[in-house]
Amino acid sequence: MGTDYKTIFGPVPSRRLGRSLGIDLVPHKTCTLDCVYCESGKTTHLTLATGEYVPESQVKSELADYLSRDPDVDTITFSGSGEPLLHSGIGRIIRFIKDTYPEYSVAVLTNGTLLSNPAARKRILDADILKVSIDGVSNAVFKAINRPCEGLQLSDVVEGLKATRQVFKQQFWVEVFLVPGLNDTAEALARIRDLLRELAPDRVQLNALDRPGTEDWVTRADPKALQRTAAFLLNAEIIAHAGPEKELPERGKPLSNSDAETRILSTVRRRPCTVEDMSRQLGLRADTIQPYLTHLLRAGRIARADMPRGVFYRAVD
After folding, report:
1. Residue 308 has what pLDDT?
2. For the chain, N or C: smaller number of CB within 10 Å?
3. Same domain, 152 and 300
4. Contact status, residue 32 vs residue 26, Cβ threshold 8 Å
């Protein structure tokens, strides 16, 4: 991936989506929610306002340039560090991909909060996969975990999900993020299960803390608790990270120090990563990345956190 791309990133390995090329349609941490577990950090622009946050023409130009190289990509995924449905042009960009590059699947990963708006529902109809999130079906849990923008009502969110399920005919997935102490009670899980039964998604996925979250007090659910919860939530699939891959030779020309640091910072600004994560995403060997991490740590531009899966690095704003 070149250093000149501003709206696309990856591709990154995903158990769910294969080799996934990401599209980030909004500035860093522009979102309708400020979730306590978010791996991208605290929401700095909490909003419900849709708009052309980045130019459509820029997204299409970057996609055309990158895909002209016949890359190893399975899915083009709207995700990144904010809520993609805040971008008013997402529907036209999806249509551009489906018309011009029909060989790729298109996935939209959304928190689902804007789907009560018929216009937002219309924008995602051409996608192949729509994944929405449900972490709580009571106002208390919704506010405690997701910390919504003022004016966002849980009842509207739920009705929007139901309406979307009626019109979206491709793969409809629901992800639940388990936060111990907040949505793992019998009552909270029963409410979620009832809604899942009504939505009848093609896949239910259960997620838990893997990278450092926004709030330090959020912990990863016990593996046995995850298994019990997954069974209760209609035999949900427990999401795991993509796992180790064979280390590959470095791709492309050697990078200058500034280019390497720019790419590393861009990667860990979107979400915390281990050295192995960065190696897979950037096409650089782990032993090439480590000296840059040491320099960035000393300069105070990144921080590290020890997690069960390993040492994660994240950008310091």
Report:
1. 73
2. C
3. no
4. no
